[in-house]
Amino acid sequence: MPLSQEQRQRILDAISSGRLPAIPPQKMYGGYVGSGRACSGCDQEMEIEYEAHYDNDRTYYLHLGCAALWEMVRHQHSESAVEDARTIRDKSRAIHEAAGRNAKEKWLRDQADVLAQESEVAALERLVDELREKARQAKRGPQTEK
Fold first, then answer.
1. Whole-structure pTM over 0.70, yes or no?
2. Residue spans per domain, the chain
3. What is the DSSP secondary structure assignment for residue 62, as one 8-state letter?
4. How confident is the model over 67-86, as a mean pLDDT?
5. pLDDT tens-digit profile of 36-74?
6. DSSP state, 6?
7. Residue 28 and residue 53: Cα distance in Å, rounded?
8. What is the pLDDT of residue 88?
9. What is the pLDDT of residues 115-145, one digit of tens each?
10. Spatial contact of 63 and 46, defined as CB atoms under 8 Å apart
11. Where are the beta strands (DSSP E) in 1-146?
């Protein structure tokens, strides 16, 4: 029996609210029970039910239609999660590469600054040496050639 719009909305609400998990169960069974148990998705009584078992000892009971819709939504969710993961990975790589470029550029700028400072120091040292030499010459006085 196809799901009514209300049943579809209930199962979608159960998934989006977390009442039904968005991950696949470890085991799934189906059978004719006739227990009158309520569907975990749409809350309506069912005769044929599907049992979804999880490792945390949680079990969900669903109609065939609710189980199928749940499976479809979980599958779509996992595909979108994979796509989201790919997008995040690609953005992360781009950021990492940009950071690497920026780090190299910063390193080059830092090296250029160091070289500029070293050349200024060398120029000042040469100037100091020249001034000392001039001071020595002035102290000795004029030199006469013999």
1. no
2. 5-77
3. E
4. 73
5. 788 888 888 877 888 889 888 888 888 888 888 888 877
6. H
7. 6
8. 73
9. 888 888 778 888 888 888 877 877 787 766 6
10. yes
11. 27-32, 48-53, 59-62
Residue found under tokens 């009971």: 61
Structure tokens at 27: 């085991």
Whole-number Å distance between alpha carbons of 125 and 33: 97
CA distances from 95 to 5, 59, 108, 110, 119 (A): 44, 43, 20, 22, 35
Mean of pLDDT values over 103-110? 81
Whole-Å CA distances, 10 to 3, 32, 57, 128: 10, 23, 23, 87
Q: Which residue's entry shows tokens 């998990």?
A: 21
